[in-house]
């Protein structure tokens, strides 16, 4: 199992080709956001930001990464747009319909805000078709165009810093 997973990860990273077509924050209409599964006030902050972006004509698609495992018994409490820890094949290839739907879209901008170094989180930027990818500081810088410190900060501060940086970036070709 471990051999199959490492082989698939290696092939995914090798096949990655960056697509840099970002025309600026003002023209970004399709945004993908990848966050860890949050609770309470943290989730409320993310929801508020997504609603604000929708109000400004931006379509935000959120994917939550969960460390919990999903079982048949828990299926009734399953959250939408969430990738659970056990939703992959023996090679580590995600089988979740929510995940496959998320990566099938073309985004102007993707915010990958998961700081985990194991599982699918570090691999997701290699699987996404996006004009600009923002990731956490301290992670592998290769797939990211911009990295922002995420750990030990309120989500509202992180999002505000990202927006401020994006307003300064006019065009990436």
Report on the structure:
The protein has 173 residues and is α/β, with parallel strands linked by helices. It has a single domain, classed as Rossmann fold (3-Layer(aba) Sandwich). Helices cover 32% and strands 20% of the residues. It has five helices and six strands. The chain has a six-stranded parallel sheet with strand order 3-2-1-4-5-6, sandwiched between helices. α4 links the parallel β4 and β5. The chain starts with a helix and ends in a 5-residue tail after the last helix.
**H/I helix tally:** 5
| Uncertain parts | none
Structural class comes to: alpha/beta
Compressed to H and E, one letter per element, the order equals HEHEEHEHEEH
Overall pLDDT score = 81
Please report the total strand number as a whole number. Answer: 6
The total tally of domains equals: 1
CATH topology: Rossmann fold
Architecture in CATH? 3-Layer(aba) Sandwich
Shape: globular
Distance between the termini: 39 Å
In the CATH scheme, the class would be Alpha Beta
Major β-sheet profile: 6 strands, parallel
As a percent range, the share of helical residues equals 25-40%
Question: What fraction strand?
Answer: 15-25%
**Strands in their spatial order, largest beta sheet:** 3-2-1-4-5-6
- Rg (CA only): 16 Å
InterPro entries: DUF6913
């Amino acid at each position: 199992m471990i051999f199959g997973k490492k082989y698939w990860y290696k092939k995914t990273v090798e096949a990655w080709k960056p697509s840099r077509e970002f025309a600026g924050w003002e023209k970004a209409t399709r945004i993908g956001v990848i966050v860890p599964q949050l609770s309470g006030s943290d989730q409320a902050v993310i929801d508020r930001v997504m609603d604000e972006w929708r109000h400004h004509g931006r379509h935000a698609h959120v994917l939550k990464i969960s460390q919990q495992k999903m079982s048949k018994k828990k299926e009734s409490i399953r959250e939408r747009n969430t990738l659970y820890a056990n939703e992959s094949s023996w090679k580590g290839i995600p089988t979740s319909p929510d995940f496959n739907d998320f990566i099938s879209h073309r985004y102007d901008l993707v915010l990958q805000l998961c700081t985990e170094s194991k599982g699918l989180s570090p691999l997701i930027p290699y699987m996404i078709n996006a004009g600009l990818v923002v990731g956490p500081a301290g992670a592998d810088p290769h797939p990211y165009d911009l990295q922002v410190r995420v750990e030990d900060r309120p989500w509202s501060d992180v999002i505000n810093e990202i927006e401020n940086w994006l307003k300064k970036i006019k065009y990436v070709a």
